[in-house]
């Protein structure tokens, strides 16, 4: 962090910059109007997350998965809950710290939530291979011949980093 801070010191001609990142204060928060609906939606999603983590821990205890990134999660629930969850599908893997997640049929061995009525959580081993960079499991690991051990998310990132360093890709 200190090296980055020192590099930024040369770019901050318009403002004085502290000599060390450890001496600098935090920036003032943005003046945003509170969005109660947004907070309520994320609170509800984190309530679902707590239930997902319980279901993952049960599968870890049985030895079916090792860590949460080896998991694929399928959430099933009443129509209203499924409608609520659907827009979060893209964020679910990051929120739940799993390789794959979605809404659908959770399966016969699904964990039934005691806290959220009707929520069933299917936890199974994610299909694919573990990416050596991010540790997510993906069926796309190896699809890029120049990076055979990386997933579809990491390949463009590594290529961009190599290009930025002038190494080419």
Fill in the keyword field for this structure.
169 residues, 4-stranded mixed beta sheet, 5 helices
Structure commentary:
This protein has 169 residues and is of the alpha+beta class. Helix content is 36%, strand content 13%. It contains 5 helices and 6 strands, in the order ααβααβββββα. It has a 4-stranded mixed sheet with strand order 2-1-4-3. Strands 5-6 form a two-stranded antiparallel sheet. The longest helix is centred in the first third of the chain and has 27 residues, at 36-62. The mean pLDDT is 90.
Topology record:
Layout: H1 2-11, H2 36-62, E1 71-76, H3 79-85, H4 92-96, E2 100-103, E3 111-112, E4 120-125, E5 129-130, E6 137-138, H5 154-164
By DSSP, the count of extended strands is 6
Helix content: 25-40%
Run of helices and strands = HHEHHEEEEEH
Strand order of the largest sheet: 2-1-4-3
Largest sheet: 4 strands, mixed
Mass-distribution shape: globular
Gyration radius (Cα, Å) is 21 Å
Supply the number of helical segments: 5
Ends distance: 27 Å
**Average pLDDT level:** 90
Beta strand %: 5-15%
Q: Which spans of ≥5 residues are poorly predicted at pLDDT below 50?
A: none
Structural class, from helix and strand content?
A: alpha+beta
């Amino acid at each position: 962090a200190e090296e980055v801070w020192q590099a930024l010191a040369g770019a901050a001609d318009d403002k004085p910059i502290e000599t060390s990142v450890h001496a600098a204060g935090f920036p003032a928060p943005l003046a945003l109007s509170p969005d109660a609906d947004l907070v309520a939606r994320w609170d509800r999603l984190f309530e679902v997350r707590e239930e997902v983590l319980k279901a993952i821990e049960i599968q870890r205890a049985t030895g079916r998965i090792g860590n949460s990134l080896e998991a694929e999660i399928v959430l099933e629930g009443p129509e209203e809950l499924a409608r609520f969850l659907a827009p979060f599908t893209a964020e679910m893997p990051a929120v739940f710290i799993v390789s794959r997640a979605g809404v659908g049929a959770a399966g016969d061995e699904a964990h039934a939530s005691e806290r959220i009525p009707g929520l069933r959580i299917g936890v199974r081993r994610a299909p694919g291979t573990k990416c050596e960079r991010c540790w997510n499991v993906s069926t796309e690991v190896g699809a890029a011949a120049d990076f055979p051990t990386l997933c579809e998310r990491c390949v463009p990132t590594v290529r961009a980093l190599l290009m930025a360093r002038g190494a080419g890709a």
